[in-house]
Write a structure and sequence with these properties.
This protein has about 120 residues and is an alpha+beta fold. It has helices at about 55-65, 80-95, and strands at about 1-15, 30-40, 70, 105-110, 110-115.
């Protein structure tokens, strides 16, 4: 299986619900996020690629226009944990790019990462 990934960045704030009041993440705070979008293919296309990286630009544009410098609690229906964001970004990327996404990883810091990888490949 061939795999590629591209990393995108944005900055946003959030506040996690359900944590003790003395937990730092229960307060409004922000991150400089990195998001890795991974695609895979059993065979390469006629050019020898899994997917042309340039075709990922619509997802980057959506992040820039709709997510960057926003409060994530205002954008998502569930608690905006890194785990939930990975799922949400995978779902949005599939819709925008009209192609199955193998996985999405969300880095809140350079030492933390959450990944959503469907148990079975989602098809459109």
């Amino acid at each position: 299986m061939y795999r590629i990934a591209k990393t995108f960045t944005f900055s946003a704030s959030h506040q996690l619900e359900g944590l003790p009041v003395d937990h730092p993440c229960s307060r409004v705070h922000g991150h400089n996020y990195s998001v890795d979008v991974e695609l895979e293919a059993a065979v390469l296309d006629d050019v020898g690629m899994v997917f042309d990286y340039r075709r990922l630009a619509p997802f980057r544009n959506w992040l820039d226009d709709c997510v960057d410098h926003r409060h994530l609690n205002d954008l998502v229906k569930d608690n905006p944990t890194a785990e939930y964001l990975a799922y949400w970004f995978l779902t949005v990327a599939q819709l925008i790019l009209d192609t199955p996404i193998a996985a999405v990883r969300v880095h809140e810091t350079d030492r933390t990462v959450a990944e959503y990888r469907p148990a079975t490949r989602l098809s459109l």
